[in-house]
Amino acid sequence: MHTDHELKPIKLPEQHHPIHENETEKIPCILLFEKIKQKALETNDNRRSIITSCLEQFPQESAYLLRSVEKLTQTINTVRAHFISTYFTV
């Protein structure tokens, strides 16, 4: 799935393969994941507070598709490390 600069979905993959049958159910998770990554880059907030604040608007019916908190935390670390290595390499 692709999103615009406001994290709104603009294109879904073709749903001709069984693995993509429930792709639309994953949209809230994908948007949450992108929101977490964006907030990790824009703020210096604690990882747990980023995850908590992003989860406030997350629909409960999609919670079973969500990644573990450890994976979300790891994503924040990766995004920040990539940003630092890209823009602050001597």
Rg (C-alpha, Å): 15 Å
Main pleated-sheet profile:
2 strands, antiparallel
Q: Give a count of the beta strands, DSSP E runs of length 2 or more.
A: 2
In total, the number of domains comes to: 1
Question: What best-fitting shape do the alpha-carbon axes yield?
Answer: globular
Q: Could you give the order of the helices and strands?
A: EEHHH
Span between termini: 35 Å
Q: How much of the residues is beta strand, in percent? A: 5-15%
Strand order across the biggest sheet?
1-2
Mean pLDDT over the residues: 83
**Structural class determined from secondary elements:** mainly alpha
How many H/I helices?
3
- What are the low-pLDDT stretches, counting only 5+ consecutive residues below 50? none
The helix content, as a percent range, equals 40-55%
Structural commentary:
The termini are far apart. The chain has one domain. Helices cover 49% and strands 6% of the residues. Helix 1 crosses helix 3. With 90 residues, the protein is mainly alpha-helical. The chain has a two-stranded antiparallel ribbon with strand order 1-2.
Outline the secondary-structure elements.
Layout: E1 2-3, E2 9-11, H1 27-42, H2 47-55, H3 69-87
Antiparallel strand pairs: 1-2
Index terms:
mainly alpha, 90 residues, two-stranded antiparallel ribbon, globular
